[in-house]
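hiii, so i know i said id send this last week but things got crazy w the move. better late than never?? heres the sequnce for the chain we talked about at the cafe, plus the structure i predicted for it. fair warning i was half asleep when i ran it
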Amino acid sequence: MKKRRILLQSNFSLSFTGLARMMKCLLKYLHNTNKYELIHYCSGISYSNPELSKTPWRSVGCLPDDPKELEQIQKDPNLARLATYGNYYLDRVMQEFKPDIYLAADDHWGIFFGIEKYWFNQIPSVLYSTIDSLPLLPQIVSDVPKVKNYWTWTKFSEKALHKLGHIHVKSVYGPIDPTSFYRLSNAERDKLREKFNISKDTFLILDVFRSQLRKLLPVLMESFKMFQKDNPLVKTKLLLHTSNLEGWSIPQLIGEFKIDKNDVLITYICRACKEYMIKPLAKNEEDCEPSRAIVHGLSLGA
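okay and structure toks below
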């Protein structure tokens, strides 16, 4: 029996973004069923990039290999942006692989261009949009009626679109690998606290995020200060697994809300050995030990 051929468009599965991790999980699951022929069309990477050959499924990039052709594209900022998401080579890839099913996962502005393609309604086509905030963008509202299979990552965006009459929209949570999440033993947890000089009686609040301005970091910092004020007898520290190299200025917020700088911990990673450490925010990289350590931000695609 002939396997169904699925073309999946999104971030390259071996890159370090939230979308990439989601695609790796999805592609791995589909691959292990042995029911499908998979083609991963990867945004932001050249068509024949050597890294693409590392996946057990077929992976191709969305940008030309020819530097001169790429240079020509980059002369037009709008064309370059759409090309990076996949528009430039999408028709070529569809013609070359002739998939039975097409699924594109990204922010709406990174997948909407597929709607007007001649083949879009000739095969089952799914747009899987992140939509992680309200109000809805006007372009989303106008495009959704054109897409028979429109999925969102969030329940609140599904409800918002249903209120506008688009009841065909479904919320589908991104797949994850559950084997990566498990509770450490009490002994292991105590050992980690000891390693990073965090006492057993410290109440630790953890947040993992990319420090973009649309994230409510000031609200978190203010809430942390309020919690400390309301619970003066509780040892409390805030652990931020993020980057101070973009978005909000963590030192500025610490000062603004009059938080003791030793009560805000940051995850650091050493460039040389890749070991991580947890400690108060350093003034600069030279203050970190071992040397050349940097604030490490998880890239989540959120």
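btw The radius of gyration is 23 Å. thought thatd interest u
miss u guys!!
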